[in-house]
């Protein structure tokens, strides 16, 4: 399975700020909420595609790598491509039909949050399968709970109108905290467990015999 790809991790780190801004917009409730939400999704989608494009070019240039590395690179690039596509499509829909979607701010924000948490879910599951640590399991469980909560808001109009905005804003802030903690913990795992292996001597430098 391997550790999560750093390219995907950087996108989840961007998601920290997207979640925070979405939560603030839910509390402030500006008159142009739909337009601001569309711009937020548009910028996020462009950032994802920028990372995808740069890394796809680099991936094709290094196509002579081992098969396992190619498979991992392909999977990470697919995750970035689908995330960027979904985010851009959502932003275009918001801009084209903004007059008809004014009453669905909560559902649309929840949908964007689900896309982001689904990407984090993939990273957390990969991390837990690699490390089998309780911390990784807890972070995976928490992101599943947050995804379920965001999915409910995207499907059903929970709570009264005022309470609905506040609860979803709290969910956005919790998601931002979860994404930030996951990013920090995963980067620590990569540096602690992957970096030492990369520093080991290659086969062309055999161990020195005790008789020499």
Protein model, in words:
There is one protein chain. Helices cover 80% and strands 0% of the residues. By secondary structure, the chain is an all-alpha fold. The protein has one domain. The protein is globular, with a radius of gyration of 20 Å.
* Mean pLDDT over the residues: 79
Largest sheet: none
Tally of helical segments: 6
Low-confidence stretches: 67-72, 197-212
- % residues in beta strands: under 5%
What is this structure's SSE topology?
Blueprint lengths: L5 H23 L4 H29 L5 H30 L8 H27 L2 H22 L5 H38 L14
Helix pairs in contact: 1-2, 1-4, 1-6, 2-3, 3-4, 4-5, 4-6, 5-6
Search tags:
single chain; 212 residues; globular; disordered C terminus
In short:
This protein has 212 residues and is mainly alpha-helical.
């Amino acid at each position: 399975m391997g550790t999560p790809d750093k390219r995907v991790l950087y996108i989840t780190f961007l998601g920290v700020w997207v979640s925070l801004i979405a939560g603030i917009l839910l509390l402030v409730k500006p008159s142009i909420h739909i337009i601001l939400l569309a711009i937020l999704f548009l910028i996020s989608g462009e950032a994802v595609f920028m990372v995808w494009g740069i890394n796809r070019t680099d991936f094709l240039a290094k196509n002579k790598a081992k098969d396992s590395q190619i498979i991992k690179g392909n999977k990470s690039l697919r995750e970035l491509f689908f995330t960027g596509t979904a985010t851009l499509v959502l932003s275009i829909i918001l801009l084209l039909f903004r007059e008809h979607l004014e009453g669905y701010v909560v559902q649309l924000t929840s949908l964007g949050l689900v896309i982001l948490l689904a990407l984090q879910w993939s990273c957390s599951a990969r991390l837990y399968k690699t490390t089998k640590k309780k911390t990784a399991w807890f972070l995976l469980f928490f992101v599943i709970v947050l995804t379920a909560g965001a999915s409910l808001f995207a499907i059903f109009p929970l709570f009264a109108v005022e309470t609905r905005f506040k609860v979803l804003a709290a969910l956005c802030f919790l998601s931002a905290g979860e994404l930030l903690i996951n990013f920090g913990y995963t980067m620590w795992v990569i540096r602690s467990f992957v970096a030492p292996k990369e520093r080991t001597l290659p086969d062309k430098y055999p161990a020195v015999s005790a008789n020499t």
